Amino acid sequence: MAIVKLAPPPGAAVLRYELGILSTEAMVYRRIAALPGGGVPTPVLLHEGDGFLLLSVLEGTPWDKAADSMSPTAEAGLRRELGAITARLHTLAPEDGRFGYPADGSALSASDWRSAFTAMVDALLDDAERWQSPLDVRPDDIRKLVADGGYALDQVTEPRLVHFDLWPGNIFVDITEGGENARITGLIDHERAFWGDPAAELVSLAFGGDAGPNSDFVAGYTTAGGSLDFSTGFRHRLGLYHLYLGLLLVVECGPRGFGSTHLAFCRRHLVDSVTRLRALE
To answer: Residue 166 — pLDDT band, cuts 50, 70, 90?
Structure first.
């Protein structure tokens, strides 16, 4: 048995960053498979075809579906394991040294992180105008917040692979012994990945639990060799990445046809991220 993942059909409404993202997912599977010593569980890419991927089936259950059946001790252990896996993922670097989205010919990449991230935000703002997205904040204000954080973005000099969608639904786990023991069996849905700042990973990880400096996740990450310094610049960048995700969530509601309840949640996330960033000024 295998899983077939299809690209959007020609002419489908997609956001700019989504152009060519199936090839991004295939690239990530290949790079993970080539990691010396492994360390990042994920489906195996069995075949890449024209507009589709054939993937192996993972054991286990998505974390969000299994959370109620595991003990606090098991969950803490999983967060530490996830930290170690993420640190291993972040050892992957682009072959061409560029930041941003890796799809062939992507305009959303650059030789430095500030330029790449600014282009990524501008692309979403263009999509927002196209879809008349209810941002609750002026686009020029978002651009100013990004520009004001330029000093922090410039601190990132080495691009690393960022999954950027590690919420519990994309993490498969196996639970045993009545919920007292658990292990991660794989990460899925790598299509949103980009080459950038490892700090950006904490945004989606926060949906599954604490990702702060004293968390089980960070303990696992640092023990495995990763580094997250939580300096002033780091926290400023983290605020920008919350802004980026909030903007993405609101804008994608247009082409995906999400309902009012989900849209309201996304709008709150965006407004809250803007409020936090303004507090840094």
So the answer is: very high
Task: List the strands of the sheet with 181-187, edge to edge.
Answer: 61-62, 171-176, 181-187
Q: 9-13, 20-24, 43-47, 193-197: lowest mean pLDDT where?
A: 9-13
- Beta carbons within 8 Å of 257's beta carbon, 6+ residues apart: none
Return all residues near 143 (Cβ < 8 A) that are at least 6 apart. Answer: 121, 122, 125
80-87: average pLDDT: 98
Is residue 179 pLDDT above 80, yes or no? Answer: no
Measured distance CA(58)–CA(187) in Å, rounded: 9
Which structure tokens are listed for 42? 């994920």
Q: What is the DSSP string of the chain?
A: -EEEEEPPPTT----GGGTTHHHHHHHHHHHHHTSTT-------EEEEETTEEEEEPPSSEEHHHHGGGS-HHHHHHHHHHHHHHHHHHTT---SS--EE--STT-SSEESSHHHHHHHHHHHHHHHHHHHT---SS-HHHHHHHHHHTHHHHTT--S-EEE----SGGGEEEEEEGGGTEEEEEEE---TT-EEE-GGGHHHHHGGGS--STTSHHHHHHHHTT------HHHHHHHHHHHHHHHHHHHHHHHHHT--HHHHHHHHHHHHHHHHHHHHT-
Q: What does the radius of gyration of the chain's CA atoms come to, in whole angstroms? A: 18
Delineate the domains of the chain, giving CATH numbers in brackets: 2-279 (3.90.1200.10)
Distance of CA 11 to the CA centre of its chain: 25
Q: What mean pLDDT is predicted for residues 187-207?
A: 97
Mean pLDDT along residues 109-133: 97
